[in-house]
Amino acid sequence: MTTRQTLALHGGEKLRKTPMPPRLAFGPAERQALLEAADHYAARQEDPPYQGRYEEEFCRRFAEFQGGGFADAVSSGTASVFVALAALGLPKGSEVIISPVTDSGPLNCIIMLGLVPVLADSAPDDYNMGLEQLTSRFTSRTTGVLAVHSAGQPLAIDEMVEAAHARGIKVLEDCSQAPGALWKGRRVGVYGDIAAFSTMYRKSLTAGASGGLVYSPTEETYRQALAHADRGKPSWRKDLDLRDPGHALFPALNFNTDELSCAIGIASLARLDEAVAARREFLRRLCAELPRASRVCRPSKADPGCSPFYFPILVDEGAITCTKTEFARAVAAEGIGLGEHYGCVVNSWDFAKSYFADDFVTKNALSMRDRSFNLYVNERYGEQEISDVLAAIAKVEAWYAR
Q: Do residues 34 and 358 make contact, with C-beta atoms less than 8 angstroms apart?
């Protein structure tokens, strides 16, 4: 039994004296790639452009990483969702089902493209949308699904795509938090009609401060994405002067990224599998030890093919004398990096409510938010971090246990 010690939150000694390890996504390889790209264009006496050799290489390597298909780099993760959704050509006013846990960007893309968002719930004890929860929201007006692989945990995406395609519904996989994740041995992103990835600086695949990738297994859909990413231009045409806006296929915005960001992305992609494997191993060991260290906290689902971005830990409020939020704050005060309250549950956003097709409440997703805190994860976490997380939970649990 853990000895009861005064919590750091109450003025006691902090359990972990040093900060949790920073990820340092912009490491030596990324710095070297950036300098090489800058030197390349300096030697050619050119300013680094967009749609140059580094973007071409980044997109080619990413498509190979996915096992084939086509990719285009864009300016942000939100841009990747906007471009991918636009490329599907869904009828204005039709309904798009969206996962209950996501950033506001994907929801805003649906709204700004003149489509109607429809919320589906998560599976119980999960932030990811469940198959039953998805199919129960299909209507005759549904034309698309925006399926988010939340927290880096893969959806049962094959079954979801099969159910959607059987009804003529297209699927956009949002893999922003899950690059490198596997479902049944294949990369997430390859199952749907098109996929969106974020490469901003906090993601496991990083291409500078902000960035994204649009991926499709088919060339036709990819070409639609290319045009939607660059002012409607048919950039695959080599017989046109694409500086002439008159060649555009349709009105579209400019979501181009740049050569220097893509050079960073090439270096980050080269170590993505290694980073994901280290994160998985950290979670595997933590999940194995947590039930033995705590009777209050239990791990959420950790799929073997996950690409962990953060990790929800469930708290049994019936076993403690405080709220889940107070418990999480006390663990954080002991020096453990975590998020005590997750803000990315769509149902909680007042600004969005008037845009939805109905007033459906995602009870499972809200319950998951209210009963868990999110442990931050990166590939530099190791044995010491496992030990400290468990010790901090045990210390807080000893103080608040009933």
A: no
Cβ neighbours around 229 below 10 Å, total: 30
What CA–CA distance (Å, rounded) separates 328 from 308? 20
Distance between CA atoms of residues 40 and 234, nearest Å? 28
Q: Is the pLDDT assigned to residue 22 strictly greater than 80? A: yes
Positive or negative, the Cα torsion across 323, 326, 332, 333?
Answer: negative
Q: How many CA atoms lie within 13 A of 299 on its CB side?
A: 19
Question: Residue 139: phi, psi to the nearest 5?
Answer: -135, 180
List domains and CATH numbers for the chain: 8-22+273-400 (3.90.1150.10), 28-272 (3.40.640.10)
Residue type, 184: K
Cα within 13 Å of Cα(328), Cβ side = 23
- In angstroms, the CA 151 to CA 173 distance is 14
3-state secondary structure 123-139: CCCCCCECHHHHHCCCC
- Express each pLDDT in 255-296 by its tens digit: 999 999 999 999 999 999 999 999 999 999 999 999 999 999
Give helix 219-229 / helix 77-87 axis angle, nearest 10°.
120
Strands (E) in 221-337, as ranges, are 297-299, 310-315
Q: Give the Cα separation of 364 and 367 in Å (integer).
A: 5
